[in-house]
Amino acid sequence: MAWSTLATLVALFTASTSAAALDIRQSARGSDFLRFSCSQLVVERADPIVNPGQFFSPHTHQIVGGNSFNITMDPATIDPPKQSKCTSCRMVEDFSNYWTASIYFQSPENGTFKRIPQFANGQLNGTVMDQTGGITVYYMRPFSGTNKKTTVFSPGFRMIAGNPLNKQKASGPLVNCHRCLSARDRVSGGSGAPCDRSDTAEFPSKPCPGGIRVTVIFPSCWDGKNVDSPDHQSHVAYAPGNQALAGDRCPASHPVRIPQVMYEVMYDTSGPFANPEYYKNGKQPLVYSFGDKTGYGAHGDYLFGWEDGALQRAMDGLGTNCFSEQCPVLKLQTPKAANECTKQQQSREDIGSDTWLKELPGGVQVY
């Protein structure tokens, strides 16, 4: 996103949607969410949730977080806080892993593919974060209702949001969405809340010279028992209502309110990728790494890895002096340290970052 979404969330939490930017900054510290940057750890075909142990997984992901990330993340054998030597996230105690599918540009001239790079997100002060690629992560308590009690995830917890098999817009509130940015909105990210009427489930149908902001909103309710499920979704649920960003209610089947995780990923579709000629006659040149040209299959994966008690302390501190990256109960590392936490691909492969590929990595077919 950028600081505009941050400002909108602050306004939601403070019931002050007309507040000036200065007022928003002053009221921000009483708001109920963490927001921090995570730099790019690695880009590769690996997915230890959906395809554990598989070399390679079917499609390319950008992964951020703890460097213990592996093709197999069995909680019985891997404990990210203990086995990671660094994290690409600003929060030192967060060794979780977060990953999303890559987006490729398919040349209308010859059909070859080039990976769209990620770029840094914006901050509330109107500057960009100092990070290499990566994503912006949110952890949110209820922004409405009276019960703010939020129970953090148990070790081994994992979940996914969205479905790469979706070929049409899913029913209900948008939980994964795309925002087409103009050049002047490259830092601010536009205006409005995440996944509102400014966003679309599908890829934008016009050039986006300021980039595309992809938002992934995870469920906010848990069954209280299982850290995973066969489909990696049934153990969690979205709160009832007509919006993905949740209040304090949960269905009886999933009664435990958990932190609502949200990602924002900025894709740099400026320059040659924004040629208006590529968007004529209802066509557009972007495709997800799993072959989806619609955009409806956008999704994200989450694997919990905070050190003992750290996230709970932060969630309990929200609403007082804990906000965004300014949270005294957590340790914050420098952007430089986060950027330096990287790892090599587990098996080397050309992913189209610097070269043009004749096909998507893994030979994935476009549909």
TrEMBL record:
Residues 1-21 form the signal peptide. The keyword Cell membrane does not apply. Pfam families: DUF1996. It comes from the Eukaryota. Keywords: Signal. Residues 47-306 form the DUF1996 domain. InterPro entries: DUF1996 (IPR018535). The keyword Signal applies. This is DUF1996 domain-containing protein. The lineage of its organism: Eukaryota, Fungi, Dikarya, Ascomycota, Pezizomycotina.
